[in-house]
Amino acid sequence: VEVTMTADRRRRSDCAAACTLDVLGDKWSLLIVRDLMFAERLRYADLLSAAEGISTNTLADRLRRLEEAGVVQRCRYNEHPPRDEYRLTDRGRALGPVVDAIAEWGLEHLPDTVRLGG
Amino acid sequence: VEVTMTADRRRRSDCAAACTLDVLGDKWSLLIVRDLMFAERLRYADLLSAAEGISTNTLADRLRRLEEAGVVQRCRYNEHPPRDEYRLTDRGRALGPVVDAIAEWGLEHLPDTVRLGG
Question: Of A82, B29, B40, B59, most Cβ neighbours within 10 A?
């Protein structure tokens, strides 16, 4: 019997920061959100080509998680062959201040880092 | 020959957000920072007892990474047996807005989550 791990079943505490980090999972999820923040919509190949070099397995896994969490929306733009594009939902777009706060800290405390996007 | 992976050698892009996420590594690092944000200093056992149930191996690994990144400072408060306590550096304390932004998003978008600390 396989247990479906929903965000709620996996919850270990009610701390809003901990629960958010459970949704986002790891750094790759936030980098996907960053990429989608600067583009209206992106295709799988666009996301795969990000500077940090995410692997195809990791990208597929994180996109699925973000979609389940209602952060990312998948839209099929071609049926044969099947091709999807991804965009942020409103709730995903609301992660803007998180990405900004992380980038601000890096700009101030890590040498030779730059702000991406606009 | 073992290669030392410093933050700089591991760097895959100059994006400030990506580099910050490389320093923080994963959700556990940010939860350790959260716990230290609400306490002047914490001992290993205090950090181990956080609600989310970090494992002792993960805690030791993340504390070492955060110390190397200059985010956390380790102070020995007992020599026999050796016992350390941990506090944030100025640069660690500057992560406050990151933890806040993550908690804000959770409070607004995840049901039944609460703000920890003051």
Answer: B29
